[in-house]
Amino acid sequence: MKVTELLHNLSQQGVQLQVNNDKLSIRSSKGVLSSEIRAALVKHKAEIIALLRQQEVATVCGLEHELSLPTIGRLISGYFQAATDFKPPIINPKFMATKLTVTFKPLPKGYNNLQVIQFREELESKLIEYGVKVLPWQQATKVLRYKITVPILGWQKSFSSKVVKMGVDAVIDVERHYSYLRKFGIWVAEKGYEIYSHFVTRLSVSRIAKLSSWAEEHAAKYIEDPTNTQVIVLTKLDEELTNPDLPYTRKIKVGLSTLVRTFSEIVLGVSEQNISILNMNLSDSIHSRKDIDSFVLKSLIPKIFVPIFPLPLSKFEIGEYAPKSSIYAAHLVKLGNKLASTELFPPGAQLSQILKRKSHRDIVNVIVNGRTGVSYGFVAYVEAPYYMGAREISANQWIKLYPVEGFNNDEVRQNEIGRRYIRIKVADEYLYKQIPDIWLVSSRSGANKTNLNLETDVIRVGLKEKLYLQLPQGITPETDIKPSYDIYVMLAIALAAALYVPQLIKLGAPIVHFHGYPAQAWLLPNEYCVGVNNPSVPCGTYESGVFNFLGISSLAQRKDIALISLIEPDHGTNIIAADLDYLVARLQAGCSKKQIELGGKNFASLQEK
Q1: pLDDT by residue (tens digit) across 450-505?
Q2: pTM of this prediction?
Q3: Helix H segments across 169-315?
Q4: Distance CA 482, CA 540 (A)
Q5: Can you tell me whether residue 156 is helix, strand or coil?
Q6: In angstroms, rounded to a whole number, what is the distance separating the alpha carbons of residues 502 and 499?
Q7: Cβ of 323: how many Cβ atoms within 10 Å?
Q8: Alpha-carbon span 513 to 576, nearest angstrom
């Protein structure tokens, strides 16, 4: 019996099969699995897992793909050894939901926003319906005892507070409004923290929150593990943030102010008819409450499952390079300068200007790994892929290659000098291609994309058997020159292009990302747009890299590609083109005709395709 027939027969009998970290999970009624079926499952386990993963890609992205998700994940993240901390990507929101645990913080006494209360009940019901584990507040919390030592005097004072336990992925609360007396208490608490932090440094996020927030009731101070537990706040929908006629630069300020005010990672705005969702991607997306099923599954659940985190420097092997000797670094600076007229890359802001309270700055400093500013969008320039030896081999040569630790031997192999080859499928034909070394230059996190300093703002990132980060000569890792949040996305786009559409990238290629969308009418016949129906995972995440890889690979049969737009719902657009001047001219034309704009105004036209 073929594996496809076996799976079909099991499905007809109500047997559910899922893949979880390379393990096959089976759910069935008693007596359904005979000894013969069990033997077949054991015999064909590897084939079943591969087929289920391909079906997952097809279900989520609407396309077939021959590579397994673990292979794609390892390729774009530099895990070419059997690393113990590697986690296969999960891109199906329904599977994400089954991995999540959330809790709802009790409503404050006298809370009377009926629209928010009603939505809160609907949201809890939908989360449970999709398989999210919703813990009652009492079950999700515990009493935590801690001591504070008064500097110089050495006095110790013991405290206890209720905290949300580790393992809870999100706390869902409502926005709270404080009296003048409570605001005075908040001011006193902040001043006390400023004095204390002058003597005691290297405080954890949770300790900072407890010291500075005793007069507040926001959910963040009740969290044991702030790094892995997000705060979601429900509040009245902000008409200014969702106003399609308000300039996006103004929305950035409104969005940042809202996140700081509510001290949360995600804010859901609620009105009688609509829902808005806001996180650090600063999307102005708006959803109809009639579509709450789709909103919860494809927008909210992915954002809870995949928090926004910068890639830590520990993931890279760090070195240096000479930007003045790099033609690609010069191309990048030129690209940024030419894009200034599009106004797609608003200037960033220093965190010290956004976060007025020292406690807030200190908390964010820990979370963002020492970054001192934020900016929106990125510019990058991919170097010509580097090969050693034959770029493509025959099926007979493939058979003679050696296994690569950590990879499926049917998908990735290596030759005697360690160059790795991959089996990919284009149309109905299998090709055996060398996996090239990928290098690119990009703007550092927080830089002004349209006025880059060649010597201090341009970093070089490599993807080989691991990740590489090269800083400009004379710059140390302690300096505020960190890689973009979107490194996984850049590398995924570059690697997928080298494997599936090599003509696009053979001489190098510019990539840009902006927080907006092109209208469908902007696209020319040789320009392609993919990803509109993807789940809205946050920017720069591992999962976002996988979606971009899949988007590029879906165009493998196209021979005339001039430009690809990769859509990230609730976030923005990545665009790669073969030519710098062509890309700039197309973006300038789109902006002048208002066929490309920041914010979500054009997204609906892409959905109508």
Answers
A1: 999 999 999 999 999 899 999 999 887 666 678 888 999 999 999 999 999 999 99
A2: 0.85
A3: 180-199, 205-212, 248-262, 292-295, 301-305
A4: 14
A5: strand
A6: 6
A7: 26
A8: 9
